[in-house]
Amino acid sequence: MSRPQDEFAEEGKEVFRNLTEVKKSQIVMPCHANHRQELSVGQLLKWMDSTACLSAERHAGCPCVTASVDDIHFEHTIGVGQVVNIKAKVNRAFNTSMEVGIVVNCEDLFSDSHWRVCQAFATFVTQRTTGGKVQLRPLVPRTQAEQVEHSLAAERRRMRLVHADIMKDLLTNRSAQDLRLEAEKAVPAERTQVESVELVLPPHANHQVNTFGGQIMAWMENVATIAASRLCNAHPTLRSIDMFHFRGPSQVGDRLVLKAIVNNAFKNSMEVGVCAEAYQGEEPLRHINSAFMIFEVCDRDGKPCTLPKIQPEPLEGRRRYQEAIARKKIRLDRKYIISCKQTEVPLSVPWDLSNQVYLSYNNVSALKMLATRNNWVLNSEKNKVSLYTLEQKQVLSFKIEFEADVPAERAFMVLSDLGKRVEWDPNYERCELIRRVDDDDFLYRVVTPSISNQGGMVQDFILLASRRPPCDSGDPYVIALRSVTLPTHPPTEGYNRGEVLCAGFSIMEVSNTISYFNQASPEVLPYISTDIAGLSSSFYSTFCTCSTFLQDNRDNPNPKDQPPSSTLNK
Predict the structure, then answer these.
(1) Which EC class is this protein assigned (predicted)?
(2) Are 330 and 168 in contact (CB under 8 A)?
(3) Which residue, among 246, 250, 248, 245, has the nearest Cα to 209 in the 3D structure?
């Protein structure tokens, strides 16, 4: 594999070095390896945490501690003699917390090949020795890559805050699973239980005498591996770690009690739950952290083996068994909706409440990434209404940019109500509000005029609309649109069901500039192709009408206090 390009470099420009960037390179020695002569994941977690902590402290100028770590998927293993290259940098600083992005690559010194091992996002909080938190200064992104991560960090933060609610709702709405397993074919869960105690010594702590988060994760990985081994009577491989939060600190002198048990075994993978609690002397146990780790057992060809079934313990064991099924659903949603590249995500992902947050994240992040592209080409311009195009990997996108003498917040509220779009956009014949998911996300059915390449049939689209106000100054208002599928609204006779890959508005508060983006699908392209070819300028009249519509509605009551409009019967 070839050496990856520097993600902080821009073509034709001098490489910019982020001031918060910290790099660590470490050759893997036998003392770092497991029985397969591969780097222990626990050791890797320690290196990742210390590198990220240094990056966070470089920006904060004061001590920081790990608050949480998002899902980590380990794509490859690292062997003895190979080099681990870890790069960490602050993506965004909020009031008293910051997101640090961590990228781990492996280097083979003999073949000069490089490959990605994993990527992680950790949240750090500031900590004064005298108590209290430090107000962080904003981080100003300099490159296109930094602008993307800075923008997406706000969406990832939003997702972290509702993670527990998603789990709760999924368990509430999920029908009970059949737990009647044949005893002779299932391994009792209690057989996989592991408990171990570690004494926290000075080498395990940071310069604040708090136990390194990475050290706690390494101990947790150790007991989880033992629990997984007891189920399969083999050496398992850790594939991923679910998002987890540190609930309290641990200090030098603590006794750290680590408990692990297999919660559920699926066909080729198992979930191990791990809990870390601390105490000193006669004091009661303090909950430090809980984590859920996913293991596989591979054969000699590297293919996952079929695992034995698990017989959960009564009561608490059954609860953990059910929760593991719910977490598997969440993992699949996060992996295939969030972690995949935009081109790898199916056009119309089935929508339901359990994956709403992840679809909304994908919706907004795709538009933000499209908006930050810096290679747009001006196609035509008329009276300050500009049409830009961007062709990338055989996908054509277009951007229409104009200014409106309307406050950005007001334009945001008006444009986010798709029901009103029929009043200025001739390509919207009807618009039905299917469901108001929450204050920021809505499901619509949009009907558009017939086009020649669809045999004269009208088209309809099932769209998820996600709107986001700025997280802080300098951020745009965002209204993102993408196609989803709903079992209640299948394709109907007489309509061609169209797809929207990525579309929406970005509204800048300072300049009053409004930009409309669309990653043109085959169903969308005919509506704009004559404009791109220079055969018409219908885009100009459409967005002039939009500007006039915004002017006419600038002083109307705030639609934020009203339900979005539906024009299905208009």
Answers:
(1) hydrolase
(2) no
(3) 250
